[in-house]
Design a protein that fits this description.
The protein is built from 4 helices and 4 strands; from the N terminus they run ααβαββαβ. The chain is an alpha+beta fold. The chain has a 4-stranded antiparallel β-sheet with strand order 2-3-1-4. The chain is rod-shaped.
């Protein structure tokens, strides 16, 4: 014959008594550790994505500064207050085969559409004269600081 506690005690303490409660507590603790680890992994992944984004922004700014330092003399074919109009005008010249860029004029609200850029003033002036004769008479030369 097996001696067993009364049904009332089994209902109160469970089949394994105090050991059952500690087992439940251990399972809950392990679950919370798993959740914390998952959150940490997600946080690390988000941090890596953010660092990559910031690195790409920094690289783009450095490339832009290098381009402006290298190509100081720009043939401008349009200047616009509205960036969308500047992009549309740049697209028109891209269709004609020019490698256009849109630059913002410092201390101004104007966006300039650059058809060609040069590192020497003499070459830029020569090309501007040809450009005004053949492509756009209203084009002008902008010298970046």
């Amino acid at each position: 014959m097996i001696l067993a506690p009364s049904c009332k005690k089994i209902k109160e303490r469970g089949l394994f008594g105090k050991k059952g409660k500690t087992l439940d507590m251990l399972k809950a603790q392990q679950d919370s550790i798993r959740v914390a680890d998952s959150l940490k992994k997600v946080e690390i992944r988000i941090r890596a994505i953010e660092e990559a984004r910031l690195d790409s922004i920094l690289q783009a700014e450095q490339e832009k500064a290098a381009y402006q330092a290298r190509n100081k003399f720009n043939i401008i074919v349009g200047s616009f207050v509205t960036p969308e109009f500047a992009q549309a005008w740049a697209e028109e010249y891209r269709k004609q085969g020019y490698d256009t860029k849109v630059i913002r004029m410092p201390d101004s609200k104007f966006e300039l559409v650059v058809a060609e850029s040069y590192d020497r003033l003499s070459k830029a002036m020569q090309r501007l004269s040809q450009f005004q004769d053949t492509v756009d008479i209203d084009s002008w030369l902008y010298i970046s600081k």
